[in-house]
């Protein structure tokens, strides 16, 4: 596996797998799920709101969650690690209580179905999936026929898929593993992700960012990157000056003073 330009995704996958294995080996998995009537109403264990998304309690969920996070690492590459990490933290705080609040409202309908919230960051994964759905275009589509093709020229009957379909199927399977709690968490995460993208959330939450040093973006490193970019641009400009305006005094400064439109016209004139 490669996590190039995705350090936050790498940390999330390794942390999720490590904490899940540690919870199983230390036999503390009972601390990571929530029973509304017992843990919240009776014993007031509100710390479980922040703990239940830390890990999963079975290997199947760990596998599908790790695959989902890895396949959606392109979101971090498009946003950058700082914005992506900030989004994960804000989503984590919002989904810590909203799914349980929804289950508490639905609990009078069935005290057994809507009482158990399973462990795992399924809401966070679906919030990222909402960004993946909106930001990443599909590369290709393919169709699967549902019946044998007739000899006559009838319209095609089948189902159309894309290269992103398998990612949605993995996430959908993850949401169904411990329903209805996992389904409610997935639905809340999907809505939170779209609320972030649509600007529905408070501006303070959407504009908040982690300090750069927490994701390895120190001021010295950023200044070095900008300096390297500036040197590359100057090198390209100097190359264009040496090939296009040799023999002119102070040609480099004259080339920098020209507008972009004039430079494009000169390029076409040289080509002709």
Automatic annotation (TrEMBL):
GO molecular function: serine-type endopeptidase activity
Subcellular location: Membrane
Topology of this chain in the membrane: Multi-pass membrane protein
Source organism, top-level taxon: Eukaryota
Chain residue ranges for the region called Disordered: 236-258
A GO CC term assigned to this protein in UniProt: membrane
SUPFAM superfamilies: Rhomboid-like
Comp. bias (Polar residues): 237-246
PANTHER family in the record: RHOMBOID-RELATED PROTEIN (PTHR43066), UBIQUITIN-ASSOCIATED DOMAIN-CONTAINING PROTEIN 2 (PTHR43066:SF21)
Name recorded for this polypeptide: UBA domain-containing protein Ucp14
Transmembrane residue ranges: 49-72, 84-106, 118-136
Organism of this sequence: Purpureocillium takamizusanense
Keyword annotations from UniProtKB, A to Z: Membrane, Transmembrane, Transmembrane helix
Major localization listed first in the record, in broad terms: membrane
């Amino acid at each position: 596996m490669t996590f190039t330009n995705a350090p936050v995704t790498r940390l999330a996958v390794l942390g999720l797998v490590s904490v899940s294995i540690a919870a199983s080996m230390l036999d503390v998995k009972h601390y990571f799920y929530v029973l509304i009537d017992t843990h919240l109403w009776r014993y007031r264990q509100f710390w479980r709101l922040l703990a239940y998304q830390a890990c999963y309690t079975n290997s199947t969920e760990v596998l599908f969650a790790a695959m989902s996070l890895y396949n959606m690492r392109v979101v971090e590459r498009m946003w950058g690690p700082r914005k992506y990490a900030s989004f994960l933290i804000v989503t984590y705080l919002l989904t810590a209580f909203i799914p349980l609040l929804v289950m508490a409202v639905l609990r009078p309908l069935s005290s057994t179905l809507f009482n158990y919230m399973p462990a795992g960051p399924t809401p966070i994964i679906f919030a990222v999936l909402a960004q993946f759905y909106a930001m990443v275009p599909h590369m290709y589509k393919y169709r699967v026929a549902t019946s044998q093709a007739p000899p006559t020229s009838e319209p095609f009957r089948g189902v159309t898929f894309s290269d992103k379909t398998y990612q949605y199927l993995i996430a959908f399977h993850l949401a169904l593993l411990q329903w209805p709690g996992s389904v409610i968490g997935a639905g809340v995460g999907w809505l939170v992700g779209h609320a972030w993208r649509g600007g529905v959330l408070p501006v303070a939450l959407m504009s908040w960012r982690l300090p750069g040093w927490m994701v390895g973006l120190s001021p010295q490193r950023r200044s070095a990157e900008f300096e390297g970019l500036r040197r590359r641009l100057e090198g390209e400009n100097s190359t264009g000056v040496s090939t296009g305006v040799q023999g002119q005094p102070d040609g480099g400064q004259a080339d920098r003073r020209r507008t972009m439109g004039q430079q494009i016209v000169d390029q076409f004139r040289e080509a002709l």
